Task: structure prediction
Amino acid sequence: MNSNQNPNSKNSKTPKNSSNHRSPSKKSVISSLSDMCGGGGDRYSTVRAKGRTPFPIALIIGMIVATVLFMFIIFSFVQVSELSSEISSMKGDIKSLSAEAKTLEGRLDYKYTKSEIESTASSLGLDSSRRTTVYFEGEASEDVSEVIEPENALGGAIDSLLSAIAKNFGKIIEFLN
Result:
C-alpha cells in the first residue's frame, strides 16, 4: 500500500494531496466562531462525566418507609371502620332491648293489677267473701303475718278508713325524709 492512498478507499478516482492536512480541533473552531460572533472568549468549561453513579440506597429506603406508613394508615382506617360498624350494631341492639324491657315492664304491671290478683286467687281456691286485712312485717329475720278480722261492719269501715289514713300519712312522712 501506498502511504499516499487512503486505506479505506480502494479505487479512488480523486487524486490525493501528498501533504498531510490536519483538521482543526473542536475547541479552536468553537473559539474562532465565538470570536466572529462577537463573543469575548470561552464562556463555558467542559466537565468530565463521572464514570458511574452510586446506587440510590437512601431513595429506596425512603420509598419503603413511605409504603409502610401508607399501609399502616390504610390498616388504621379499616380498624376504625370495623369499630364504627360494631358500635352502630350495638346501638341497634340497645334500642331493641330497651323496647323489649318496656314491653316486659308493661306486662309485669298488668300482671299485678287487682283484677289479675283476684282471678289468680279465685283460681287457687281462695274465697273473697271473707273480708280480712293481712299485714306483713319484714323487719324481723322471719316474716310474720297476722290476719285481723273486723268485729262488725261499722267498726270495720272505720278501722279501714283509719288504716288507710295511717298508711297515706306514713307515705307522706317517708316521702319527706
Notes: Residues 56-119 form one domain. The first strand starts at residue 133 and ends at 137. DSSP finds four helices and two strands in the chain.
